[in-house]
């Protein structure tokens, strides 16, 4: 049984469902049931007795775009673990790009960041190159950057705090830096932070990292380690936007990409590309009355 939940333009919902149903029928995967979730009238749930999840996602994407979507091979349950990327997922910026602006290097570093997030560059070497370019930048630029440039994505705090209230363990795991991630986690309500550490000496960045690198493998291992602690019946949700997030997205029970790069989107069980982060709460059938204020 496949279950798909999606949020799309209500004005075209009926015609889009007809289009999707015809395409699914042609594959031999007829829709068993399609109905709006009762309490939340903008979420459509579609059930199929069988089907290839990736192909079903593509059919639904084509019919309903833009949409917020989740496709699951079993019941969709509120997760016990939420592991999320930070930059361009929980916040609207890439921290290293904004920090680079204080060194007059934003355009150069942002170009490297974009290629790394697209999966065109090795993450570790790209990170070391960018950090190296920041050598001798005053440490005070970090606090200034946080205060002036870094803003949460719409719905981020509501998402995290609502999941916390449901007993979900929330972890912010980033290829960025603790200098940014720790304050962001406190602002949004994350219980744990995993990130990189910028080297600092005599009040200036050294151009190196001061601890082991957090890359895609560490992100995945963070998710797996937390799941081992929670036990075999736990369900996990992972979110991100770039190639570095793909392993943890694939390892999670529910992998959702947020306005993501193509490779990350293709690897996901679903995506947010229409609404804000509160769409995740809708897809998991959490009533608005239970959302954090």
Task: Report the helical percentage.
Answer: 40-55%
Question: Largest beta sheet: what is the strand line-up?
Answer: 2-3-1-4-12-11-10-5-6-7
**How many strands appear in the DSSP assignment?**
12
Amino- and carboxy-terminal Cα gap: 35 Å
Flag low-confidence runs: none
**DSSP helix count?**
12
Provide the residue-averaged pLDDT.
96
How does the overall form come out from the CA principal axes?
Answer: elongated
Biggest sheet descriptor: 10 strands, mixed
Judged by helices, strands and strand pairing, the structural class is alpha/beta
Q: Give the radius of gyration.
A: 20 Å
Order of helices and strands: EHEEHEEHHHHHEHEEEHEHEHEH
What percentage of amino acids are in beta strands? 15-25%
Q: Can you walk me through this structure?
A:
It contains 12 helices and 12 strands. It has a 10-stranded mixed beta sheet with strand order 2-3-1-4-12-11-10-5-6-7, sandwiched between helices. A two-stranded antiparallel ribbon has the order 8-9. It is elongated, with a radius of gyration of 20 Å. It starts with a strand and ends in a 10-residue tail after the last helix. The model has no long low-confidence stretch (mean pLDDT 96).
List keywords for this structure.
single chain; two-stranded antiparallel ribbon; 12 helices
Short structural description:
The chain is α/β, with parallel strands linked by helices. It has twelve helices and twelve strands.
Mind sketching the topology for me?
Layout (H helix, E strand, L loop, with lengths): L1 E6 L5 H14 L4 E6 L7 E5 L4 H12 L3 E5 L8 E4 L10 H7 L4 H12 L5 H11 L6 H10 L6 H10 L3 E9 H11 L3 E5 L1 E4 L2 E6 L6 H15 L5 E5 L5 H6 L2 E5 L3 H5 L3 E3 L5 H6 L10
Parallel strand pairs: 5-6, 5-10, 6-7, 10-11, 11-12
Antiparallel strand pairs: 1-3, 1-4, 2-3, 4-12, 8-9
